[in-house]
Specification:
Elements (H helix, E strand, L loop, with lengths): L1 H24 L4 E7 L3 E8 L4 E8 L6 H12 L10 E6 L2 E3 L4 E4 L7 E3 L1 H8 L4 E6 H12 L8 E6 L3 E7 L2 E3 L30 H4 L1 H15 L12 H9 L3 H25 L3 E5 L10 H11 L2 H6 L1 E4 L6 H13 L1
Parallel strand pairs: 1-4, 4-8, 9-12, 12-13
Antiparallel strand pairs: 1-2, 2-3, 5-6, 6-7, 9-10, 10-11
The structure holds zinc ion.
Length: 337
């Protein structure tokens, strides 16, 4: 009897230790994301669902050479407690990126970054780890796909509203970068052939109306021609203060946001007509003012897009705007493996 009990106990020990092994084997996959911006670099460890496990932020110094910046990034990456477990790193950065080769062709606000083989240089530093690089708008779209649509979207467009108007496209659950890597430039859809000049060289682009500096210029002109006042002498006028004015009930501020919504809506209607996406996620700093422009944008979509396509498309405001770059970069690592 005693022997039988001993055997039973031994079986339990075996069972529990094997369960323990399974638990170790089923440890979640982790990926490293690096979001290089004009002001700062965010680095983080993210799981396969897009949840951030640990993150760090370092300043971005435009005066430093790309090599110096890369050395700093790799130094920081090695400080993470899960560094050894991570096999793949994803990096997102603004500019013209050759994603296949991982080369930064140029970056408009980081002038020293010309023809920088970012992937190769980081891989050299992080011996044995794979690195994937893409443009920040594509990376943000991937982030939105993971955490805003929870991977439920099949065809999705992410539109970033800020200083400029950017975009990224997901088709059949994969980032669509186009033939030379520049797909998704939704900010440069022409909405008026006679419209204001845009820094891209064209004119009448969505960005030439609602990119922050263009939008503010429009408001300044509007104030001059109508005599309406939005700000007092010496007060700053930008999207943030305009949002605050609208929140306080200022009718002129609200009218300006409706103008913003109209121009955005015309662009979104074109996106819906061409791509027939099931989701559009709006992100970027200016998206926080969406309560004042989205209704007008939706009216414009209803007026211009194919009814069936407009009804199919779910438009949401990202709940993760500030983190999309970092999460998306890590998911770029996951997708690329
Ligand atoms: Zn343009």
């Amino acid at each position: 009897m005693k022997k039988k009990l001993l055997n039973l106990g031994f079986c339990f020990v075996l069972l529990f230790s094997s369960l323990g092994c399974t638990r170790v084997l089923a440890q979640e996959e982790l990926y490293m994301g690096v979001d290089i911006g004009g002001q700062s670099i965010k680095i983080g460890v993210v799981n396969e669902k897009g949840e951030i496990k640990e993150e760090r932020k370092v300043g971005m110094d435009n005066q430093k050479s790309p090599q110096e910046v890369i050395a700093e990034i790799t130094r920081e990456i090695k400080k993470f407690k899960d560094y050894e477990r991570i096999k793949t790193v994803g990096i997102g950065m603004p500019g013209d990126i050759n994603a296949q080769k991982g080369v930064v062709r140029f970056s408009p606000n980081l002038l020293k970054w010309k023809e920088v083989p970012l992937k190769g240089l980081v891989e050299q530093e992080l011996e044995g780890k794979k690195v994937h690089v893409d443009n920040d708008a594509n990376v943000a779209a991937l982030g939105a796909y993971y955490v805003d649509t929870e991977q439920k979207a099949t065809n999705m467009v992410c539109v970033t509203l800020g200083t400029g108007v950017g975009g990224g496209i997901v088709i059949n659950k994969k980032i669509y970068t186009g033939s030379s890597g520049s797909a998704g430039e939704v900010g440069h859809i022409t909405i008026d052939e006679k419209g204001p000049d845009c820094q891209c060289g064209s004119n009448g682009c969505i960005e030439a109306y609602i990119g922050e500096k263009y939008f503010i210029k429009y408001i300044e002109n509007y104030m001059k021609t109508t005599g309406k006042r939005l700000i007092k002498e010496g007060e700053a006028l930008n999207c943030k203060t305009l949002y605050e004015k609208a929140q306080k009930g200022d009718e002129t501020a609200k009218e300006m946001w409706r103008f913003y919504g109209k121009k955005l809506g015309i662009g979104l209607a074109t996106i819906i007509n061409i791509l027939n996406p099931d989701s559009i996620v709006i992100c970027g700093g200016v998206s926080s003012a969406s309560a004042y422009f989205m209704d007008t944008a939706k009216k414009e979509i209803k007026k211009r897009a194919y009814a069936s396509a407009a009804e199919t498309c779910k438009i949401t405001i990202s709940k993760n705007t500030a983190k999309l770059g970092l999460i998306g970069a890590a998911m770029l690592a996951k997708e690329g493996k």
